[in-house]
Inverse folding.
């Protein structure tokens, strides 16, 4: 399992597309995805598990393009993305 943690967002975040991405790739329902995006906008981190690194990587690339900052953990080792925030 690979865990992706969405840690924040950049100006210009496309909320609607992030909602769709969560529904398509993370298996969220409509209400769950909307609630998750609202939580992210208030500063809360979100974590999702993917079956493999490839699925996590696909999700991360798409999320990054929408304005999301994130990091992912595969087999216990944390791999920050180019857009992840430190802190």
């Amino acid at each position: 399992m690979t865990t992706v943690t969405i840690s924040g967002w950049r100006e210009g975040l496309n909320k609607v597309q992030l909602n769709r991405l969560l529904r398509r790739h993370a298996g969220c329902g409509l209400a769950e995805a909307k609630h998750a995006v609202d939580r992210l906008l208030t500063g809360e981190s979100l974590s999702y598990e993917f079956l493999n690194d490839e699925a996590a990587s696909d999700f991360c690339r798409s999320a990054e393009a929408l304005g999301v900052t994130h990091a992912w953990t595969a087999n216990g080792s944390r791999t920050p993305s180019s857009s992840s925030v430190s802190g």
Remarks:
- Residues 53-66 form the longest helix (14 residues).
- Strands lie at 2-9, 46-50, 68-74, 77-80.
- The chain has one domain: 2-77.
- Helices lie at 15-25, 30-41, 53-66.
